[in-house]
Design brief:
Largest sheet: 8 strands, mixed
Number of helices: 9
Helix content: 25-40%
Low-confidence stretches: none
Radius of gyration: 18 Å
Mean pLDDT: 96
Length: about 290
């Protein structure tokens, strides 16, 4: 089912649900500049066997309103959009999963809306700034993104024709995928064609990179989180490589760290089964009344 949700400030968000309405809801929160189609259909289908799965387009992506230059906002406002989606669908509490920027947004939800979360799952992300120092994993020792990605990001805003743009994006996915799990260029090319058709443009979204970054230095507050939380370690992630996931898991008392071997920062077909299994094992434990920490 597809619908549009009013998120405030004149923004409307495209939302799609899958799975039976009486199943426990699971909200998927994507990364920066990525539409809801970034969640592979195969992953949604696996999760929808056990959940009412909700995916949506962030502001300024996909079919949602694009108005950043007229009505700018902060990154933290995107966490409020996730709550607006739940409200519009009359979902009181949900499991929530986020990757990349979505992982930061889920951390904000853990802090500001814990009663709305049945559980949380995060990966491809790092701990919010300002977290209590960890004697075993010093923040200054956390590695940065792969230099090959940094070089590609310098080219992100360049003008390219559609064929060149598609080639650039597929190569970007190749680097995000990491070097362990197989990479299917056709699969990611098809994804980008679908995203462009869904969005009506090949223009790269830039609003989230320009959005106000303030109000995110709240890592110290994670020490009071009690919501059952799964942190997935993606050992081949070239943006937030190990030990970012371990640092995040250690900052949240209710968190459990699980490694998905070979996982990078892309959700190709090879990554879907083990990632879905990890998420479902977590949500099933919570739904059954068990603890995951």
């Amino acid at each position: 089912m597809e619908t549009f949700v009013e998120a405030g400030d004149g923004y409307r968000l495209w939302v799609e649900t899958a799975g039976e309405d009486d199943l426990p809801p699971l909200l998927l929160v994507m990364g920066a500049g990525a539409s809801g189609l970034g969640w592979p259909d195969a992953l949604v289908a696996r999760l929808a066997r056990h959940h009412r799965v909700i995916r949506y387009d962030h502001r300024d992506t996909g079919r949602s309103t694009r108005a950043f230059h007229e009505r700018p906002y902060a990154v933290r406002d995107l966490a409020g959009d996730a709550v607006a989606v739940l409200d519009a669908l009359s979902v009181d509490r949900a499991h929530v999963a986020g990757m990349s920027m979505g992982g930061y947004l889920v951390q904000l939800l853990l802090l500001d809306h814990p009663r709305r979360l049945l559980s949380a799952a995060l990966w491809g992300t790092s701990v919010l700034g300002g977290a209590r120092p960890d004697p075993e994993i010093r923040d200054e020792d956390l590695p940065g993104p792969d230099p090959r990605l940094l070089a590609m990001w310098e080219q992100m805003g360049q003008e390219r024709d559609q064929e060149a743009e598609l080639e650039w994006r597929v190569e970007h996915w190749r680097l995000l995928n990491g070097d362990v799990l197989p990479f299917d260029a056709q699969e990611f090319g098809d994804l980008e064609r679908r995203v462009a058709a869904h969005s009506g443009t090949w223009r790269q979204p830039s609003a989230h990179a320009l959005a106000d970054q303030s109000g995110m230095e709240r890592g110290e507050e994670l020490a009071r989180v009690t919501v059952p939380t799964l942190v997935v370690d993606a050992p081949e992630d070239p943006i937030t490589p190990p030990p970012h996931a371990a640092r995040l898991a250690r900052a949240i008392p209710s968190a459990r760290l699980v490694t998905v071997p070979g996982l990078g920062h892309a959700l190709g077909s090879a990554a879907v089964p083990p990632l879905a299994d990890a998420i479902l094992a977590h949500t099933r434990s919570v739904d059954a009344g068990g603890r995951t920490s």
